Structures are given as structure tokens and as C-alpha cells.
Amino acid sequence: MKADIRVALVGNPNTGKSTLFNTLTGLNQKIGNFPGVTVDKKTGFCTLADGRVAEIIDLPGTYSLYPKSKDESIVFSVLADKANTHTPDLVVVILDATNLKRNLLLYSQVADLKIPVIIALNMIDLSKKAGISIDIDLFAKKLGVPVVPISARKVEGIDKLKSAISFANKVALQEASIDVEAIAPGLIAKIREDLKVDNPYLALQLAHQHETVKFLTPAESDHIEQLEKEYSFHSQKAQGAETIARYNFINDLLYDTVKVPETAKDETHSNKIDKVLTHRVFGLFIFLGILLFMFQSIFAWSAWPMEKIGDGFAWLQNYLHSILPDGPLVGLVVDGVLGGLSGVMVFIPQIAILFAFISILEDTGYMARVTFMMDKLMRKVGLNGKSVVPLIGGFACAVPSIMSTRTIENWKDRMITIMVTPLVTCSARLPIYVLLIGLVVPNRNVWWVFNLRGLALTGMYIFSLISAIIVAFAFKLILKGRERGYFIMELPVYRMPRWNNVAFSMYDRSKAFVLQAGKVIIAVSVILWVLASYGPGDRFDRIEQKYKQPQYAKQLSPEDLTRSINSEKLENSYAGTLGHFIEPVIKPLGFDWKIGIALITSFAAREVFVGTMATIYSVDGNADKIESVQQKMGSAKNPETGQPVFTLAVAFSLMMFYAFAMQCASTMAVVYRETKNWRWPAIQFAYMTVLAYTASFVAYHLLR
Amino acid sequence: MTLSELAPGEFGIVKEFTDLEMSVKLMEMGCLPGEPVTVSRVAPLGDPIAINVSGYQLSLRKFEASTIILQ
User: Fold this and answer.
1) In CA terms, which of A53, A200, A360, A576 is 20 to 30 Å from A166?
2) CA–CA separation, A260 vs A246, rounded Å?
3) Looking at residue A159, which CATH number applies to its domain?
């Protein structure tokens, strides 16, 4: 779609910016990247009343143009870089009408860049309810910009905002807020002259941010550095002076336009909830209770849809087999690709439910309280209160969780969080645990209510959290911090979750999961299928010849005969050869060559384990029927000793391996993407593999 | 007296800061000299604290609160 006008949405966090973005663009949006940085660029299109099309860019929420985190730095870059392809023609600044004072700081900075601005005064309904009276006409007159009162949640005032966008001026008409030149006298004029910058505030911002912005040449940046020395410019002092000047301007502005009652009603309402949810004693128990409820629901509610998805794929595979002729290509597509895909698709319900919970917890403002409650504990082990969100998200999938660490401002805290998040039991490990626990742990109750298998599974989850915390502590001692850590965070007012946002997040995350994991799984399935279907030399022919001898046909039923041929072929295939090759290394852990194949394929993605096991134990029909794989694995005997392969020791050793090993290509890729350095994923891979091997070894020898 | 010495429910007015780096961040969030602040609660583990300032609730660690000197 071609846009007639480009509009950027700018605002503080928790002002309803995303809701407004979703309302303006509907589902007509896409996520891309800003060039050179990994920050997601959310854009969408919106048709205005006059038929013109506006491209809307949703910029990350920030309190000021001075960035404190990776995400926030993009806001200034987009607004300031005039040569860029996504420079907006117009900025819509969203202000929270219930909290104008702090919100106006960002507005006054954006306005001083002299880009055409419109104010969307959001949550106007809530501010009225709280008894805040705003003289909107006078407010708009004093600022010199159009001000549109809206309620993004209730979809009120959106049409007026759209017409304000279509009637917006092409030149900036807003009143100046502060005397910018007075903050760095001389320096600003010199930068404007030497770098041909027409706007004084842009010149001041460049003095602050010249080292981080991408659009200056090294020569320009060095020149600014030189000038700063000449004029003895102190960045923090100048920033402090600017902030004080801006708040003076804001206080003057609000003095005769806004009247706030002594205590806003919404605030006290929120306070009452906080008294319970962050209570000194109950607060942490409530959090634990919410977590327990979340996991119970994820398992309970996803069981039915997961079964249906599995059945659906099984039906499709059977159907395709019945109408297509047997052959290598059909086998590859139906068994390899479809089998692998069904392995991913069955996780959709879990991912969707988990993200529904996370989005509700974030939307209501509870996640900020969790951060608040956990900060002290987290800090002790080298993390940050904000690390709680990725760690909880890690129960679903490390990939989006690692992306969500961008909100952590401190470099060291963020790196440690990234390093330990993959240790948390993600949903891809779940089917492996379920399979192995079902194999070796008896299904009976202890202490009246606790099911032994359920306890073992819960144990694996708790174990993963404890190991993440211990590893974080180790990294705290090893890593050198570059900057001081701090924790200055808004506790937003409690609000009802926005259900369309919850639904959208479920859809969006599931889609991203399927696309990301799907690619890997298809690739692995294809490669594994090829490796398992072909063998070196004429080994396969010899096996066929061997089973053509009459004594086999007499002793075995035709079904058993096919199975024996297949399993012997597998052992002699490339995959089998590979398994035998690594067997000496994994033997101390109690694993045989068949498990070895599964381990190797699982390094692409853990989900592949069950499918690989299914292929290896030559189960006929659907590769993802856990029940049948389980039976096969349960009856598997060690050819040398005649004992079952999957003993308690082997199963737990295997679970320990999966608990620690970095078996996920997508996570490695996202760690690289977030750290921009191959060293980090390499370190992570190395330490996790060492831990996995050690833990497996210990588990096997303790339980044997 | 610093902000970290206030008990929940107690109130004070910001006078100045002892730490430049922290002050820049705090002022951006609306915690400026002359601004009244009320401690609304302390986290269950004793740190951080939550304060009411500029019409909203802000949480910060006790160490950060100790850089804020009250009138």
C-alpha cells in the first residue's frame, strides 16, 4: 500500500499507545525492522476520511528523548534523521489525561524538534471520572497545536483524531517551550553552523547523543566531541537543567488549564488493590498462587486442542498415504515434513494460553508489581526485578522472552538474563518430560492428593528455576558491569485487560512461533528423514536380501518382517552410523546410539525428540502419538544385557540433558540478534553443554 | 533527611540530590526539587519502595531514595 502521509505515534509507556495503534490500523499492520537495529518496527495503514492513506508507525514507549534502554533510542533516531526513509511527516503524541504532568515532558521535547505535532489526549473518560477538569481549548491555544480528546479503549474520538491527521499542517506551528540556547550557550549555535542543523533543540540533542545515533558520520561525531570540550559541555548537568526548565514550562502550562482534585479516585482504587497484591506477607504467596494457576491452566486447557491438532495431522497423513503412491518423495513430504510440522503445531494451544496470561498480567499492571516485589531477590543473584518477565516467559519459549529483555536498561543485568533464560523449562521440553516420566515414574498418589508423575514434572520446573538462579549468580561474579544498575520504574494504575489486545497477542505470538520454529523443524525433518532413509554403500540392499531368505518369512508375520527390516536399515543408515559414532561419548550417561540420534537432531530444536524417537523405534502410523512411542520405548531392550533401555536412571539422565543443553537453533539465533556478537551464543552453548553432560552423568550414576 | 528514611504514609518535599546521574533520571520521571513525595508502600522483601510523586506511583530502590534529600 502506498501512503500519502507518514504518522509516528509517540508517548510514555502505559498511555494506551498500542491500543490506539491497533484501533487506527486494525489488523492491517506488519512488523519489520528499523535499518541497522533490531528494534521491531510496527507499521500499519489507516484510511482517512478524505480517502487518503496514512502510514502509522508505532514507536516504543519512552519517558523522554534521552534513551535509557535499547528500544527507547529508536524514538529520537526516527524523529531526528531527516534523510531517513521512515521520517514522519507528522507526530501524534499520546498523553495520558490522568497524568499530564509527566507525560508533557516528552511532548515538549518532541515539539521542540519542530516536526508538525498533534496531541491525542487519551483516557479522557478516566480523567473525567477522577474529577480532573481540563480546559482543552486553552490548553491547545497555549501550546499552539491541535488537541483531540480520545478514549482509545472505548474507541471514542478516533474519527476526530483521523480528521485532525488529515487536516494537519505541513509546517510546525507549535509554540516554543523553553529557551534551548540558554542550556548550552555558544555550543548550540556552533553545532548548528558547522553541521548545518537548523533546529536548536536538534543541535542540543546531537551534542548529547552524537555517539549513539547512526546518521552522523564519524567525522561529524568527532567534530561535536571537539566542540563539547571547547565549550566545556557536561551532558548530565545540561540534561538536568533542561528537565528542570521543561517542568517549569509544564507547571506554568497546567496552572490555569488543568485542575486535579486532592487525590484522584482511580489512584485510591489502585492503592486498595495494591494493599492486597503487594502485601508484605500475602503478596509473594498470591504471586506463587497465580503462577501455579497459570501452569495448571496451560496443561489443563491445552490438552484437548493439542489432541485434536495431533489427530488432525494423523488423519491428513493417513489420508495422503492412502491416495498417493508409496515412494521416497511421498515419504519425505508426508512423514518427514508433515510429521515434523505436527510436532510444532501441537504446541500452539500452550503458547497461545501462556501468552494470553502474560499479556493479561502485563495489561492489568500486575507484572510491574511482580517486578517490584522480586527486585531485591533478583538483585542478589545478579538479575533485576525486570528479569522476572523474561524468566516467566521462558516457561513458554525462550525466543520471545529473550527479545523482551530489551526493557532492562542495565547491560550486565540484561546479559545475565539472556544467558540464563534458556535454562527455564520451555514448552518444547514438556513433551519430552511427559514421555520419559510416564515411562519410569509410577502413576500413583502420594500424600493423598499429589500424583507422583505430577510431582516429578513440577520438580523439573522448580529445578530449572533454581539452576537458572545459580547460573545467574555465577555470571554475576564473572561479568564486569559497565554501568551502575538502577531501578526507577512506574507502577501503572491497575486497569482491566483489553481483551482484543489479549486475543491479538495470542494470535501474533502463535504465528511468530509457528513461523520461527516451523522453518527449523521442516529443515530438520527433511535432513533426518534423508539420513535415516539412506545408508552408505550397499548396506540397505544387503539387508533386503537377508530378509528375503525363507526362514524369516516363516517365523515372522509380514508386519513384524517389515518392522525388522526397517529397524535394521535404520541402524545402518547415515543417521544410525552417526549415532554409533557418538555412542562412546554418551555411553557414560547411559545413552545408546538410538538416543544419540535423537540428541543430535534435538540440537536444532528440542521438539524433534519425540518425532525422532518415533522414527527410530519404527512405530507405524502417526509419529506423534506419544502413547505408542512410549510403549515402544518401554519395551525396548538392551541387546547385550536384555534389560530395558529406559530405566529410571536413563530417563532422568536424559531429562537432565534436555534441562540443560542448548538444543534450540532459534534461541541461538535470537541471542546473536540481541547481542550482536557471536561470542554470547557460543559461551551460552558451551556452558550449557558442559552442565548438561555433567548433570546427566551425575543423575545416571546416582540412580543406577 | 533523605527519602529512604520515610516510613510508609509519610510525606516530604524534595530539596536536592546527592548523585548527579541518579538525579537526571529521577527528574525526568517527575521527581524534582519542590515536588511533594509520599511513600506509599515498601516491597514485601523490604526493598524497593513505592512513592507517589507528580500524580502517579513510582518505584525505586532504597539506595536511589537515599540520594534524594528532603526539605
Assistant:
1) A200
2) 20
3) 3.40.50.300
